[in-house]
Amino acid sequence: MSSHLRNDKRGHYQRRGRSLTEHIADETFDEDFRSTLDSLRRLVQVAGDTGRDWKLVDALLRTMIELVLETAGDLFVATEQLATEPVDATEAESYCDDGSVESRLGLRPEYGLRLEAVIDSWSDDETADFLMIGLRQVQRLARRGKLYYFLVDRRRRYPIWQFDRSCGVLGGVAQVAQAIPHSWSAWHVYEFMTTRHSLLSLATPAQWLLMNHDPESIVAAIGTAGPT
Do residues 209 and 215 lie in contact, with contact meaning Cβ atoms separated by under 8 Å? Predict the structure, then answer.
């Protein structure tokens, strides 16, 4: 911010009779806001550098907004407490040597899982590009249950675990997708598909499909999972 604009801003605060403490607080907010914009820039850059499209950034931001609205901002916990009882920001402050609460806070695991589910999924464009087919064909496969998808703000996302290494869809995906309870959230499905299971010889369901094993075993494993 230029010195001219800062002087105008100081005058604005003085005319409104704001205290020096309030002014400092706003200066801190400015720094945090610039840091947030820099994080957004890096997110867009990383997505581009790794060959992901802008729809991933859009889906991540929308998911983050949903999380903030659902939790009223209560997304973080002291990193030392991630495996125990959650604490609020006031309690977390005592763990910080430099007086900064944010430096020792981490995203709660259940919320991180929601973001991971989005990151490990493709947009309709990415899916069409990988399968080397058109968008209409992707949408047709989704409608017929041949592709599993979830929605982020009414936009389809296709989990990457259902694709093979040869630009195709793994066998058994349709059968597994049909067995997934409608009550399961996208992140519950993601957690299940990427977690080792005793009924699958300690392989994950995603690995099981990739090894061309029978999808019936995954369906049986779904049946043993508790409701979400």
Answer: yes
Q: Does an H or E element contain 1, and which?
A: none
DSSP 197: B
Is 198 a residue whose pLDDT tops 90? yes
Boundaries of domain holding 205: 120-224
| pTM score of the predicted model | 0.75
Domain identity same for 132 and 189: yes
| Final residue of a structural domain among 88, 104, 119 | 119
Q: How many domains does the chain have?
A: 3
What confidence tens digit (pLDDT) does each residue in 135-193 have? 999 999 999 999 999 999 999 999 999 999 999 999 999 999 999 999 999 999 999 99
DSSP code at position 193: H
Kindly write down the DSSP assignment for every residue of 102-153, as one continuous string.
Answer: GGGEEE-HHHHHHHHHHHTEE-HHHHHHHHTS-HHHHHHHHHTTSS--EEET
**Residue 167 in contact with residue 132, Cβ under 8 Å?**
yes
Tokens of 117: 């589910």
Angle, CA of 88, 92 and 97, to the nearest 5°: 165
Same domain, 155 and 141: yes
Closest C-alpha among 82, 81, 64 to residue 73: 64
